[in-house]
Amino acid sequence: MPSTTANVAEPHPMMPKVNHDEIAEQMFVSDLKTFIGREIESGQAKLMNNKVIPAITRAKGAPPANHIEVRGAMEKEIDYQAWATLNRTAQEMMWDSVASCVDRQLDALIEKSDVKNPKGSLTLDPNFVVPRYIEAFDIHCMPGNYHAVTRPNDVRQGAVFDRAAAIYHMGRNGGFMNDIRGHTVVSHLFERWPGLSPKRILDIGCTVGHSTVAVAGYFPDAEVHAIDVGAGLLRYAWARAEHVGVGIHFSQQNAEATNFPDNHFDMVFSSAMLHETSHTALPRIMAECRRVLKPGGVVIHLEVPGHYSQLDTWGRIRGDYEIFYNNEPFWRGALSTDFKAKVAEAGFKDVRAGYQDATAKAVTGAAPAFRDKSKGVHQSWFIASGVK
Ligand SMILES: C[S@@+](CC[C@H](N)C(=O)[O-])C[C@H]1O[C@@H](n2cnc3c(N)ncnc32)[C@H](O)[C@@H]1O
Fold first, then answer.
1. d(CA 172, CA 10)
2. Of ligand 1's atoms, which has the minimum distance to the CA of residue 281?
3. What pLDDT digit, counting tens, does each position of 167-211 carry?
4. Atom of ligand 1 at shortest distance to CA of 165?
5. Is 288 in contact with 234 (CB distance < 8 Å)?
6. Crossing angle, helix 156-168 and helix 231-243, to 10 degrees?
7. Which end of the chain has fewer CB within 10 Å, C or N?
8. CA angle (33 as vertex; 278, 21 as ends), nearest 5
9. If you measure from the C-alpha of residue 205 to the centroid of ligand 1, how many angstroms do you get, rounded to a whole number?
10. From CA 386, how far away is CA 192, in angstroms rounded?
11. Regions in the chain scoring below 50 on pLDDT
């Protein structure tokens, strides 16, 4: 039975507290994910190169045509099956361990989300229609996904996501604040447009505001807006931001068509959002970013690194795992997309794409950190940016 109400790893007041047994369970899952990623996954490329590809080559007298052929053969290997099964199981264990911890304190979290004298605001839309590409399945296998709502003033999905995100990233995105992507967006802004001090900022696909809060911290006088699709996610995000002293205006809106006026923002950004949108939605989102930006305003889209064209065979098979076993149906499509071309096609000028070094603190005048090549996952992030 849980024996304490120890407040371990609580970086802000909205973060669900953990008792002795819960932190033990969550740390176990985090270590298990690290072990699978480092120790077991590293064997898969060896299995592929030393056994599976030579066997295909011998059998047909020619090397495999593509990674899909190799993946088919890997799926018959017990080592691969064990890795994939363990990976999926650890992911499900992560959500289970966090959900039970959130559910026992959900009433208290909802009460804490009733922020008095907020600096920012929360605008929910009871008639909001969740886009089909979000609504159809639980992304990352998170039960209820980004949008489930179970009760009035719900914060459940936000609380589960916030607590689980650090385990998911194994601490590599800024520990429990998960804010390195936000700092990296600002680092890119400082490097490309050092003179720009945005007065109005919009984050599209903010989830619980991990990146929004980080970005807002650099521009205390700016009016910062953030949108997403889930009411419970957004209520949590708003309360979380207020509890860390940052006023952000959160609203439940589809990034394909928002209610913001034309020519309104100095900076619009997204962080790890585009790979979760459909092929049809992508150009609409790009066009909407341009519509709401002022002339001279900048768009910065941060994405996961690892374009399929730059991945080796194992990298592509690993990417496909996300599609089939982690409910990321657009993973290969998004990571094969030429985001630079998409931003340019939306009418932006001076468009550039590359990899920004991940940073926990953006500094003006820092050494250049925007490069052609990725340094790898969590070391750098892909960015496509441009000016209206
Ligand atoms: C991986 S999360 C983004 C994480 C967050 N930006 C950060 O840096 O911590 C992707 C988010 O995009 C949101 N999203 C996807 N399509 C959207 C759309 N059309 N409009 C608004 N939000 C959307 C999802 O609901 C989800 O919360």
1. 17
2. 19
3. 888 778 888 899 999 999 999 999 999 999 999 999 999 999 999
4. 9
5. no
6. 70
7. N
8. 115
9. 3
10. 9
11. 1-7
CA 80 to centroid of ligand 1, rounded, Å: 31
Q: How far is the CA of 374 from the centre of ligand 1 (A)?
A: 23
Q: Give the number of the atom of ligand 1 that is nearest the alpha carbon of residue 211.
A: 8
Q: Using an 8 Å Cβ cutoff, are 333 and 323 in contact?
A: no
Q: Which of 59, 142, 156 is nearest to 94 (CA)?
A: 142
- Atom from ligand 1 closest to the CA of residue 255: 20
- For 227, phi then psi, to 5°, come to -125, 150
Q: Ligand 1 centre from 215 Cα, in Å?
A: 16
Nearest CA-CA partner of 180 in 199, 166, 161, 201: 166
Residue 347's CB is within 10 A of a number of other CB atoms, namely 13
229 lines ligand 1 (CB under 6 A): yes
What spacing in Å lies between the alpha carbon of 250 and ligand 1's midpoint? 13
* Residue 207 beta carbon below 6 angstroms from any ligand 1 atom: yes
- What's the domain range around 188? 156-387
Domain membership flag for residue 86:
no
Report pLDDT for 9: 58
Cβ of 357 below 6 Å from ligand 1:
no
Mutate which of 147, 186, 250, 276 for ligand 1 pocket (most atoms within 8 A of beta carbon)? 276
Model confidence pLDDT, tens digit, residues 268-282: 999 999 999 999 999
Residue 110 falls within a domain, yes or no? no
Integer Cα distance of 146 and 151 in angstroms: 15
3-state secondary structure of 204: strand
Look up the CATH number of the domain holding residue 306.
3.40.50.150
- Overall domain count for the chain: 1
Q: Determine the distance separating the centroid of ligand 1 and the alpha carbon of 43, expressed in angstroms.
A: 33
Q: Is 121 left (phi over 0), alpha (psi -120 to 50) or beta?
A: beta
Q: Which residues contact 81 (CB under 8 A, 6 or more apart)?
A: 75
User: Which residue is listed with tokens 């990976």?
Assistant: 87
- Whether residue 369 lies inside any domain: the answer is yes
Amino acid residing at 109:
L
182 within a domain of the structure (yes/no)? yes
Residue count of the chain, please give it.
Answer: 388
Measured in degrees and rounded to the nearest 5, phi and psi for residue 362 equal: -85, 140
